[in-house]
Design brief:
Helix content is 9%, strand content 30%. The chain is built from two helices and nine strands, in the order αββββββββαβ. It has a six-stranded mixed β-sheet, with helices on one face. The mean pLDDT is 92.
């Protein structure tokens, strides 16, 4: 037995994990989930299926923040808001592929991106380096009272402020992308 078990302490709970279907953590995001997918309007894309496990006890909701770490917006520390989804119910174990546009999802969660009330696929230019797209999932001990504004960056800042002191766990998954030549 471990020292913790000998003292009668409970074993540590496994860390919350996040999986984005279609590519390995740190791998290349498939074109189908990007702004470069055939038949996709600018700034859109098909959202990938996302799942999570090992949710901590006491979780009341989830917040997903997908962003492009390589883009400094308007000479600020803001990076590109690709998908901000909050108040995902605690009963959810993921999001399906192809989440529809609109301010509110069927489960009551809200969504917004720099493109509008939808998933914004990766869109780094073909001539530059691959960009790092990060999916961050937060398990929260509350649902937050934040309404979407017309501006995704203001909304994301409001959500980030509202979750302070309520984060039970965080899981991260990354992908790389640049438009095909």
């Amino acid at each position: 037995p471990t020292a913790a078990q000998q003292r009668g302490a409970a074993p540590a709970a496994p860390a919350m994990t996040l999986t984005v279907e279609g590519f390995p953590d740190g791998g290349d995001v498939p074109v189908r989930y990007s702004q470069a997918a055939p038949g996709v309007a600018t700034g859109e894309g098909l959202s990938p299926a996302i799942s999570w496990t090992n949710v901590p006890a006491g979780t009341q909701s989830f917040f997903l923040n997908m962003h492009d770490m390589d883009l400094a917006r308007n000479k600020t520390t803001d990076d590109q808001a690709h998908w901000v989804v909050w108040n995902i119910p605690s009963t959810a174990a993921g999001l399906p592929e192809g989440v529809p546009k609109g301010p509110k999802l069927a489960d009551g969660a809200f969504q917004i991106s720099a493109t509008g009330q939808m998933y914004r696929g990766p869109g780094a230019g073909a001539n530059g380096p691959k960009h790092h797209y990060v999916f961050e999932l937060y398990a929260l001990d509350t649902t937050i009272d934040v309404q979407p504004t017309a501006d995704a960056f203001e909304t994301r800042a409001n959500v980030m402020k509202a979750i302070q002191g309520h984060i039970l766990a965080k899981a991260v998954y990354g992908g790389l992308f640049r438009r095909p030549q």
